[in-house]
Task: inverse folding
């Protein structure tokens, strides 16, 4: 399964990309995360549905 996300608010300059990457990596998910020009963060993850759901529940 592949999911594509956009995050808005205070997500740049606070370690958001690093934390998202770290957690996804720990779960064995693939994908990417990047800053957008409008201040949002874009992320795409790929892997088993149940692991993506776990990523979605991490705060």
Result:
């Amino acid at each position: 399964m592949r999911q594509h996300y956009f995050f808005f608010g205070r997500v740049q300059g606070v370690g958001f990309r690093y934390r998202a990457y770290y957690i996804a990596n720990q779960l064995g998910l693939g994908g990417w995360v990047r800053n957008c020009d409008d201040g949002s963060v874009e992320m795409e993850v790929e892997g088993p549905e149940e692991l993506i759901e776990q990523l979605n529940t991490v705060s």
